[in-house]
Amino acid sequence: MKNNCFNLHKCKIIEFPTIADERGNLTFLESSNQIPFDIKRIYYLHNNNNSSRGAHAHKALNQIVISISGSFEIKLDDGKKYKTFKLSNKNQGLFICSMIWRDLFNFSEDSVCLVLASDFYKESDYIRSYQEFLSYSE
Ligand code: TYD
Asked: Is 121 in the pocket of ligand 1 (CB under 6 A)?
């Protein structure tokens, strides 16, 4: 996993261009321009309750997480440091590179979490044990 990210500093908030006029706002994002990978999959978390989600890392997947309604928090951990982000701004996305442990929590009732992913769903790309994740990051 030498080429994989493992680096919290690479996980950043990306500002998306927004066209605002008297009708409201239009926010857009394009692969390779705002998004640093080709988007192969989109999924979204909705009807969220008090449960936490995530609790895994990905071996190779890169993702952008966007709060398109309400708010939630996301804790990112590279095995050495961690940082918590509160996402509520519809003009922003959080880039999460591979090999970052993530926990999502504190979803507001109206929250919708949109995720753009660099690959199709593959269970083999998941690391679901924090101890296993730490063993890779050493
Ligand atoms: P999971 O990624 O574990 O959810 P979260 O990290 O948000 O808590 O996925 C939950 C279930 O959904 C799991 O059985 C895998 C399945 N799933 C798909 O089939 N396709 C997908 O694109 C995703 C993200 C999950």
From this structure: yes
- Average pLDDT in the 116-125 region? 98
Q: Is the Cα torsion angle 136, 61, 126, 80 positive or negative in sign?
A: positive
In degrees and rounded to multiples of 5, residue 40 shows phi and psi of: -110, -15
Q: Does the model's pTM come out above 0.90?
A: yes
- For residue 54, give the ligand 1 atom closest to its CA: 6
43 lines ligand 1 (CB under 6 A): yes
56 is catalytic: yes
User: Which of 122, 99, 12, 112 is closest to 53 using CA atoms?
Assistant: 112
The region, left, alpha or beta by phi > 0 then psi within -120 to 50, assigned to residue 54 is: left
Residue found by looking up tokens 């880039």 in the block: 95
